[in-house]
Design goal:
Blueprint (H helix, E strand, L loop, with lengths): L2 H8 L3 H10 L4 E4 L2 E4 L1 H14 L13 E3 L8 E3 L2 E7 L2 E7 L6 H4 L4 H12 L3 E4 L9 E3 L2 E4 L4 E3 L9 H14 L1
Antiparallel strand pairs: 1-2, 3-4, 5-6, 6-7, 7-10, 8-9, 9-10
Helix pairs in contact: 1-2
Length: 179
């Protein structure tokens, strides 16, 4: 195959294909001033980046919404995450409320009765992400506060049957990575 065809298949420019040929990145032979490219070698090169790169989690949508009607309410409530960052005693502290949309996949797997209970527990729950350690232990629970990473990740969420606090702390770690 020629450089134009290879470039189209690889999603690269013809110049890049010529460089790959001249450096031996792909198997190719120059004939009459033109490159003849081995299709199998090109296919291996095209597949290489996906083999080298670790699988990445889908990007987190911090603007997602979740609609729910709480017990006793007549109108549904639209829940949206709220993220606020402040500096406290020289430490950046990020607070996240409105966690339900960020846990929607987990909530969908919980039976209705336990899901309603979990949504009530999430209603006032908060995740706090600090940029420095505040606890002596790597993980733990104290007075309805669970933490991980020496207190850099904390939540006021108290585990329910359908959603353990560890899932919320995992969410906190993913939010930290996304911010």
């Amino acid at each position: 195959m020629n450089t134009a065809t290879a470039a189209a298949l690889a999603g690269r420019t013809r110049a890049t294909i010529r460089i790959w040929c001249s450096k031996g990145v792909i198997a190719a032979v120059k004939q009459s001033g033109r490159w003849s490219i081995n299709a199998a070698s090109l296919a291996d090169r095209i597949a290489l980046p996906s083999r080298l790169r670790p699988a990445q989690e889908p990007c987190m949508d911090l603007t997602a919404t979740y609609t729910h009607t709480y017990a006793g309410a007549t109108e549904p409530t639209i829940i949206t995450p709220v993220i606020k960052t402040n500096i406290r005693r020289g430490v950046a502290v990020t607070s996240v409320t409105g966690l339900a949309p960020l846990l929607a996949d987990h909530l969908a797997t919980i039976d209705e009765r336990n899901r309603l209970h979990t949504l009530e527990a999430l209603r006032t729950a908060r995740i706090v992400i600090a940029d420095s350690a505040v606890e002596d232990e790597p993980t733990g629970t104290s007075q309805a506060i669970s933490w991980a990473d020496y207190g850099r990740l904390t939540t006021t969420y108290d585990s329910t049957v359908g959603l353990p606090a560890s899932v919320v702390l995992d969410l906190a770690a993913r939010i930290r990575a996304a911010l």
